[in-house]
Amino acid sequence: MTIRISGLGGASLPRLAGGAILAAVWILASGCQPAGPSERAEPKPRVALIMKSLANEFFLTMENGARAHQRAHADQYDLLANGIKDELDVSKQIDLVEQMIAQKVDAIVIAPADSKALVAVAKKAQDAGIAVVNIDNQFDAQVLADKQARIPFVGPDNRKGARRVGEHLAKHLRSGDAVAILEGAPNAFNGIQRRLGFEDAMKAAGMNIISSQSGYWETDKANQVVAALAGEHPELKAVLCANDSMALGAVAALRAAGKAGQVRVVGYDNISAVQNLLREGRILATADQHADQLAVFGIEYALEMLRTRGTPADRETPVDLVTAPGPSPQP
Predict the structure, then answer these.
(1) What angle do CA 99, 51, 242 make, to 5 degrees?
(2) How many CB atoms lie within 10 A of CB 91?
């Protein structure tokens, strides 16, 4: 028996490529259709991680944690990670967000250098259909409201973390002791919250805050500020630093002034550069907000937003007190 198929010029099956003709016969008989474009696998979402200064160990740790997570979940998403060189280079960070909008990424996870100035471009990304998640440094609530933007914050309670560091310090001081606060950049919400947390603890313990000024997150600037404080205020008993980079500068300044061990220093971030100083007691305490996981928390939330299209809400992440083994607290 010879099968003849209309449209093939009366050719018989043995004279044609048998496999192709059998496939065509099966499709026609079964009513099945070849897979169309809509049935092909969806491309993996592309997530952009935009950080602050990669010269800061904290953000390098953040980037490494994000890349490790992506490697472990390579089938779920692609990662584009970038950051600015100078923590205060706000315009460059805005440019990075603009680039990600132009590349039509699916999500942006951002640790903004400025809590106010980055809101507009983040809202622009949202308007372009990109899921935006704010980590580390929270966007300013009033600017968000003014821009009619709703961007979830995934990160720790910086005020709570700083208060715990300050409370630990207070156990090693006496009521009325003179202390100074080194703040972060004035336009950074997390820096403001850490200052407030330090103030909460110092005021509750009856300490005398003789100075509160910005070290702009940087070791060198903190060194200059503390060197001046050590000379002007011989009564100084402690310096509370809003990040560990500034704590390193404070320790160096106190050592140069001959006051190592006489003035307590605390920090925030628990970067590896302070580990030896913690063990030696030259830094009394810091706060660990888990830099290696902070971006991961944001990435996972962004992927969740892409899957569910749900209404975004803030999500608090852990922050832990890290203390040094050292002398007993003051009686």
Answers:
(1) 150
(2) 11
Residues 6+ apart with CB under 8 A from 214: 182, 183, 184, 185, 186, 191, 221
Other CB atoms within 10 A of residue 181 CB: 24
Q: In which residue ranges of the chain is CATH 3.40.50.2300 found?
A: 46-153+292-317, 158-288
Structure token pair of residue 138: 């929270």
The CATH number of the structural domain formed by 158-288 is: 3.40.50.2300
* Average pLDDT for runs of 10 along the chain of length 331: 38 40 39 48 91 89 97 98 90 97 98 96 97 96 96 96 98 98 94 97 98 96 98 97 97 97 96 94 96 96 92 91 68 39
**Lookup: tokens for 241:** 């630093």
pTM: 0.81
Longest dimension (CA), the chain: 109
Which CATH number applies to 46-153+292-317?
A: 3.40.50.2300
Name the phi and psi angles at 141, rounded to 5.
-65, -40
Instruction: Tell me the residue type at 79.
Output: L
Task: Determine contact, residues 143/306, Cβ cutoff 8 Å.
Answer: no
Cα distances (angstroms) measured from residue 250 to each of 172, 179, 229: 18, 13, 10
